[in-house]
Specification:
This protein is an alpha/beta fold. Helix content is 27%, strand content 27%. The strands form 8 sheets. Strands 4-7-11-15-19-22-25-28-31-34-37-40-43 form a 13-stranded parallel sheet. Strands 9-13-17-21-23-26-29-33-36-39-42-45 form a 12-stranded parallel sheet. Helix 5 (406-431) runs antiparallel to helix 6 and helix 7 runs antiparallel to helix 9.
């Protein structure tokens, strides 16, 4: 099998014989293939067949067997001229077997407007360094095999080719020049480009239509500057791009449509060229990039629609535009973020129902907004543990803090603490014993003091309101205890000031709450214990207010 860029030498040796396909040949052609290091890679022997003999079989409607044949300047355009046909008229060929053959032309090996109804076999076929054209060819419901074939430095054209329902194999094909499948219709039937070496030329599939069948580019390698799948139509069936090496090419899937079936880019390698899936419609299908490697080229899904997209265990070294028009689940779990990941609304609304940030190591920047990206629901709706949800909100809190989005930081922090409390409550219950008994009082007290009264020190106004409510409640407690004769508030001077019990209760409560302690009214009886408690609560809430207020001011 010939892979990569090769040169070759030919030697013509007179030898009359008949080929296996029934052609009379007068020469043998010995071709020596030489690799990039000027080493002999392979020597093959072919029978030289004249094009006129091939044309006669085509005219008779016979199948053509060119196995191990050398064919020079084959041209269906020349045959049309010979038959007086128009340039765009089809020539019917029953079937062609050209495995292990060698085609060469001064200009173009021309199969344009061929209509082949039976087997199409170009396995291990070598096309020289001229152009190759299958323009507008029709491969009817038959198997098409180009596996292990070699396409040279020229431009190989499969534009507007129509494939039937049979299987199509380009496995282990080696291409050096430009390769174009623009506007091709691959029809139904399995399509395979496994382990193809696409070489350094431009690879174009845009506007192509893929049928209701599985498609595989597994382990293929692209070495050129551009790989174009724009506006392709992928119908139902799996789309397999696993372990593909895209090199540093510009990869473009813009505006492509995908039918039912998983789209798989797992462990593929993307280099320093830009990669674009803008305005793609993946519908509700799963798109997998698990374990894929990314270089410095930008990656964009702007305006795309998707079901679930997974970047699990990837290292994201590049700017990534995740401004989906709609996405049910975006999985970034176990990723390492080293650059900017952009979720911020632009021209299109950004709708991501579930955002998985479990175990993300953020060494770069996430461009998000709490409300606009509906982050609380995007994480809370996940099927994961309370601890994993808490950790994701903590990650967002840290990211918002580093970018100065302090209001969003507060929202993320509060949500983190609430999920952390739920997680700790679960842990205490699971441990059983005394911890299980105390779990509920601890949960309720935490919720009351830290959440309800101060929103975890993020809302000074809430703390201030809590202070006022607490002060009023203690004042009413004093008033009730005095009326029930459970204690007294005795004046510390003589004669006592003429104040009502109501005024004394509220005054003493204020002095005690603020820990001023003038001593003009002293608690007696059971009120002493309530006053001690209020002094502690007042000191705590004043400190709580100071923390929340200063935190706001400093930011």
């Amino acid at each position: 099998m010939i892979r990569g860029d090769f040169s070759f030498d030919k030697k013509f040796v007179p030898e009359q014989h008949t080929t296996k396909g029934g052609f009379s040949a007068e020469e043998k052609v010995h071709v020596t293939f030489i690799d990039d290091y000027n080493s002999v890679h392979l020597v093959k022997h072919y029978s030289k067949v004249s094009c006129s003999d091939i044309y006669k079989k085509i005219e008779k409607g016979e199948s053509i067997d060119l196995n191990e044949c050398y064919v020079q300047n084959f041209s269906l355009t020349a045959l049309r001229e010979e038959l007086g046909l128009g340039n765009n008229e089809f020539i019917d060929i029953k079937g062609i077997n050209a495995s292990d053959s060698f085609f060469e032309a001064d200009d173009t090996v021309d199969f344009s407007y061929a209509r082949i109804s039976d087997t199409v076999n170009f396995e291990s076929c070598f096309f020289g360094n001229g152009n190759v054209s299958f323009y507008q060819a029709q491969f009817q419901d038959c198997r098409v095999n180009f596996s292990k074939s070699f396409l040279g430095k020229g431009h190989t054209i499969f534009q507007y080719v129509k494939f039937g329902k049979g299987g199509k194999s380009f496995d282990k094909l080696s291409n050096v020049g430009n390769l174009s499948f623009i506007n091709s219709d691959f029809g139904d039937g399995k399509l395979s480009f496994k382990e193809v070496a696409f070489g350094s030329g431009v690879i174009e599939f845009h506007f192509s239509r893929f049928g209701n069948s599985d498609i595989s580019f597994d382990k293929s390698v692209f070495e050129g500057k551009r790989v174009d799948f724009r506006k392709c139509e992928f119908r139902d069936g799996k789309k397999d791009f696993r372990r593909v090496d895209f090199g540093n090419a510009h990869i473009n899937f813009d505006e492509s449509e995908f039918g039912k079936g998983k789209i798989n880019f797992r462990r593929s390698i993307f280099g320093d060229g830009p990669v674009s899936f803008e305005l793609c419609n993946f519908k509700n299908e799963e798109v997998l990039f698990q374990g894929a490697e990314f270089g410095s080229g930008n990656l964009s899904f702007k305006g795309a629609k998707a079901g679930k997209i997974s970047f699990n265990t990837c290292q994201l070294n590049n700017y990534i535009d995740f401004r989906f028009e709609s996405c049910k689940t975006l999985d970034l779990s176990d990723t390492i973020v080293r650059d900017v990941v952009d979720f911020k609304k632009g021209k299109y609304p950004v709708l991501i129902d579930k955002l998985n940030l479990i175990n993300v190591r953020n060494l770069g920047k996430l461009i998000l907004e709490w409300d606009e990206n509906n982050l609380e629901n995007a994480i809370a709706s996940q099927s994961c543990t309370l601890k994993e949800k808490a950790d994701q909100f903590r990650l967002l809190k840290e990211d918002f803090g580093s970018s100065g989005q302090y209001e969003d930081e507060d929202k993320a922090y509060v949500t983190f603490k609430r999920y952390e409390l739920k997680y700790l409550h679960e842990q205490r219950i699971a441990e059983g014993g005394l911890k299980k008994i105390l779990a509920y009082p601890m949960k309720w007290s935490n919720q009351l003091v830290f959440d309800k009264m101060g929103v975890y020190a993020t809302d000074p106004a809430r703390v201030l309101l809590s202070m006022i409510v607490t002060y009023v409640l203690f004042s009413l407690v004093y008033l009730g205890m005095i009326h029930l004769q459970l204690g007294e508030l005795r004046p510390g001077f003589d004669p006592p000031e003429d104040l009502s019990t109501f005024a004394v209760s509220f005054y003493h409560s204020a002095i005690t709450f603020l820990t001023i302690g003038y001593g003009d009214y002293a608690p007696w009886g059971a009120i002493r214990f309530v006053s001690s408690l209020e002094g502690f609560v007042g000191l705590f809430l004043m400190s709580y207010f100071t923390v929340a207020f200063v935190r706001k001011i400093l930011r």
